[in-house]
């Protein structure tokens, strides 16, 4: 009997050792993936955001890559939860660790470095005042960040002040707002960009006329600036001559004529500056018009290809989706409705109940949820990176590029934390528990209602804006 018991203990020990070894190997793979995510963020920073700029602050690149890696890790942990990879205790530990790290980056590291970067660019701020002013700016940020949650019912009353739920709830409000605004604009802008019905016909003759106007304006600016340089040179020469004459005590009789000539030159310079300013503004307007016309013509030519026709069909699909989403958001807001069952399980239950299919609801909901979460994760990351790239090139310059990247990293981190918070509704109940346990006792229904409200506002404002822009765009037919 003792021998049998020893054999059982030995077998159990071997099995536990094997499981521990397997879990350790999976943890090593998990950490390797985090390194891969960091390198992907680093590569995106160098090849997309800063391909036209020189990197002056390496810390900006490190913070952006860390934020990207931690954001992707949260999606990875959701997939691990569905597939049952790693032990539950290990997954919970990595959830907590990842969440604490990304909150530290979003609430402490990024705001402090943004404040430091802004203050170092101010010329009259002395070096000894950098640290006190940076910490003061961070405290101001913390105050307004904390006040963000006051108007919203985001927490249960039992939570204390210094809890992780307090931070997550406020990050969630900001992130859900950004996500809803981007989603609402994207749902409206995608059909507008890809559907041929919204494309204006543009003639090559009209583009040539606009280019001639632009070239004529540029020639006028060059001629006036050349005249301005000559007058400034003449003014400087007359001032030098006047100084030499006054020192020598000669030609005092000509003082009045020299002074009159100097005033005349100044008046001419002032007049030229007044004339050049509106011409430069006109040249910028004409340049943007030429670029817009060329883009419209390229879109028309692209729409005639097979790929363009495919995107035209996708545009119709997005139009239907946009109308359906606006309708559903309106219903949810009016009737205060929040889904209780995830869409995958609900769809399978309908197929089993009303269509007579014999399916294992639990089995298929797990695998389809895995695919759905994977698609949502990939499309969210891809869509946000594309949006960040466009926004960066729209507003950045060689001086402001580092600061803008830090702000985009802040938005990216909050966006992905909110994505995990909202993605909880797309998962079956057995997989929601870990997210609920990690994120804390938040008012999840509020975030879904808030998303619906902001999505509806963003979509309606985008429709109005694009309608006005489309209405004011002149039709230019090819003669």
From TrEMBL:
It is found in: Membrane. Keywords: Membrane, Transmembrane, Transmembrane helix. It catalyses: iodide(out) = iodide(in); bromide(in) = bromide(out); fluoride(in) = fluoride(out). GO terms for biological process: intracellular pH reduction. One of its GO terms (cellular component) is Golgi cisterna membrane. InterPro entries: ABA_GPCR_dom (IPR025969), Golgi_pH-regulator_cons_dom (IPR022535), GPHR/GTG (IPR015672). Residues 302-471 form the Abscisic acid G-protein coupled receptor-like domain. Its main location: membrane. This is Golgi pH regulator. It comes from Toxocara canis. The lineage of its organism: Eukaryota, Metazoa, Ecdysozoa, Nematoda, Chromadorea.
């Amino acid at each position: 009997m003792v021998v049998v018991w020893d054999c059982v203990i030995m077998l159990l020990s071997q099995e536990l050792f094997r499981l521990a070894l397997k879990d350790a190997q999976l943890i090593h793979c998990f950490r390797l993936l985090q390194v891969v995510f960091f390198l992907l963020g680093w590569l995106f920073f160098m090849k997309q955001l800063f391909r036209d700029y020189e990197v002056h602050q390496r810390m900006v690149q490190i913070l952006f890559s860390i934020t990207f890696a931690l954001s992707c890790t949260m999606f990875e942990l959701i997939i691990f939860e569905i597939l049952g990879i790693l032990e539950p205790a290990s997954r919970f530990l990595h959830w907590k660790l990842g969440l604490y790290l990304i909150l530290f980056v979003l609430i402490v590291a990024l705001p402090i470095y943004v404040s430091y970067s802004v203050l170092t660019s101010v010329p009259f701020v002395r070096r000894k005042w950098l640290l006190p002013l940076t910490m003061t700016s961070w405290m101001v940020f913390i105050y307004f960040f904390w006040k963000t949650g006051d108007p919203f019912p985001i927490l249960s009353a039992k939570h204390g002040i210094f809890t992780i739920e307090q931070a997550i709830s406020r990050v969630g409000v900001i992130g859900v707002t950004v996500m809803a605004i981007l989603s609402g604009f994207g749902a409206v802008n995608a059909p507008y960009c890809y559907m041929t019905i919204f494309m204006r016909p543009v003639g090559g003759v009209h583009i040539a006329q606009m280019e001639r106007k632009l070239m004529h304006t540029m020639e006028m600016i060059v001629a006036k600036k050349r005249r301005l340089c000559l007058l400034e040179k003449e003014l400087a020469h007359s001032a030098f001559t006047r100084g030499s004459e006054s020192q020598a005590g000669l030609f005092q009789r000509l003082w009045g004529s020299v002074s009159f000539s100097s005033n005349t030159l100044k008046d001419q310079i002032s007049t030229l500056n007044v004339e050049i300013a509106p011409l430069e503004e006109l040249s910028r307007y004409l340049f943007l018009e030429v670029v817009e016309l060329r883009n419209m013509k390229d879109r028309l030519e692209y729409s005639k290809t097979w790929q363009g026709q495919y995107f035209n069909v996708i545009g119709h699909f997005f139009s239907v989706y946009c109308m359906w989403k606006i309708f559903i958001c309106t219903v949810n807001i009016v009737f205060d409705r929040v889904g209780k069952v995830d869409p995958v399980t609900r769809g399978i239950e309908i197929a089993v109940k009303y269509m007579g299919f014999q399916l294992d609801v639990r089995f298929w909901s797990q695998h389809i949820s895995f695919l759905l979460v994977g698609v949502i994760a990939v499309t969210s990351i891809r869509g946000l990176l594309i949006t960040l790239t466009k926004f960066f090139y729209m507003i950045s310059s060689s001086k402001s590029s580092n600061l803008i990247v830090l702000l985009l990293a802040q938005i990216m981190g909050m966006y992905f934390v909110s994505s995990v918070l909202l993605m909880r509704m797309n998962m079956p109940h057995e997989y929601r528990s870990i997210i609920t346990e990690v994120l804390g006792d938040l008012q999840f229904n509020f975030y879904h209602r808030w998303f619906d409200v902001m999505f509806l506002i963003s979509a309606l404002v985008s429709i109005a804006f694009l309608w006005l822009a489309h209405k004011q765009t002149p039709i230019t037919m090819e003669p």
